[in-house]
């Protein structure tokens, strides 16, 4: 009995020792595995901590940059507001200060030569006189009245030399136009002379030619300026010219019609004997056109004196080249 029990006890002791040895070996193997894995865990933890620090740093940097941007934007907005206030105040000051209606400048001595108010009330005297000179040379109008309020400009008279030089500007458009008309009239009178045409042979003949040309320039400038008498005379003379031209054309047309009727009647008579009805038609047509000839001639004769006066005022003296 003692031997089997001892054998069983030895077997249990051997199994227990074997079990402890396996547990020790498993524990040692686990420790070795943990020892190998610990550096990796530490590296991961360190990387995580570094990433957290970086993220915290980025967040802090982003927060700092956002704060700086907000401060910069606030400063810029404040600066823009100050500039806008300064600009608006400058605009208000510029609008409040009087300025010239021609050059829009605020510096220099400004005057108020008419009844205008507001921004159109002030001008530089030099700008106004320059505008008057340009207007006279371009349109033949001296512009002595304001176009806005209609009041006459209250300006001291310019020096006499300046006024003469401005009036007799040789490059003024109305002066060039008038002397071109004179030259054209001389050419026409040379080609088709009239009873009033005189040959241009002596230098002293230029005196009345230039004098009447300048007189017509003055009259046209006065008409543009608003002279009622000269404006009425211009309308009357134009109406007389058109009427006299219409009478002349009707007289020529009536004579041509009479000649045409006579030519047709002669051609019919030569080709064949005409019937009484055709002869009656020819006689009636000829009588009608002959009446028009007599009436047109009567109109031309009656209006000739008026036409002479108008022609003399518009074309005297009439010269031809040789």
Automatic annotation (TrEMBL):
PROSITE patterns: ZF_RING_CH (PS51292). Residues 92-156 form the RING-CH-type domain. It comes from Ostreococcus mediterraneus. PANTHER family: RING/FYVE/PHD ZINC FINGER SUPERFAMILY PROTEIN, RING_FYVE_PHD ZINC FINGER SUPERFAMILY PROTEIN. SUPFAM superfamilies: RING/U-box. This is RING-CH-type domain-containing protein. Pfam families: RINGv. It comes from the Eukaryota.
């Amino acid at each position: 009995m003692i031997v089997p029990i001892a054998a069983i006890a030895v077997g249990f002791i051997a199994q227990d020792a074997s079990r402890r040895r396996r547990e020790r070996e498993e524990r040692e193997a686990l420790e070795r595995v943990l020892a190998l894995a610990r550096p990796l865990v530490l590296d991961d933890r360190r990387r995580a901590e570094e990433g957290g620090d970086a993220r915290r740093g980025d967040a802090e940097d982003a927060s700092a940059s956002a704060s700086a941007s907000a401060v910069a934007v606030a400063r810029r907005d404040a600066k823009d507001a100050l500039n806008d206030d300064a600009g608006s105040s400058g605009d208000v000051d510029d609008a409040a200060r009087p300025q010239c209606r021609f050059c829009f400048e605020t510096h220099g001595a400004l005057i108020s030569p008419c009844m205008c108010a507001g921004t159109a009330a002030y001008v530089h005297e030099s700008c106004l006189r320059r505008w008057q000179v340009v207007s006279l040379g371009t349109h033949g109008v001296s512009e002595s009245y304001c176009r806005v309020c209609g009041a006459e400009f209250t300006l001291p008279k310019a020096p006499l030399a300046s006024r003469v030089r401005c009036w007799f500007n040789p490059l003024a458009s109305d002066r060039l136009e008038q002397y071109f008309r004179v030259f054209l009239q001389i050419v026409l009178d040379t080609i088709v002379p009239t009873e009033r045409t005189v040959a241009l042979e002596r230098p002293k003949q230029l005196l009345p030619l230039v004098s009447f040309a300048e007189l017509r320039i003055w009259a046209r400038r006065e008409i543009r300026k608003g002279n009622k008498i000269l404006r009425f005379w211009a309308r009357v003379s134009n109406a007389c010219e058109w009427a006299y031209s219409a009478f002349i054309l009707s007289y020529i047309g009536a004579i041509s019609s009479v000649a045409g009727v006579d030519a047709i009647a002669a051609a019919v008579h030569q080709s064949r004997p005409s019937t009484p009805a055709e002869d009656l038609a020819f006689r009636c047509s000829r009588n009608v056109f002959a009446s028009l000839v007599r009436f047109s001639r009567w109109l031309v004769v009656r209006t000739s004196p008026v036409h002479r006066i108008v022609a003399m005022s518009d074309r005297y003296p009439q010269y031809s080249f040789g």
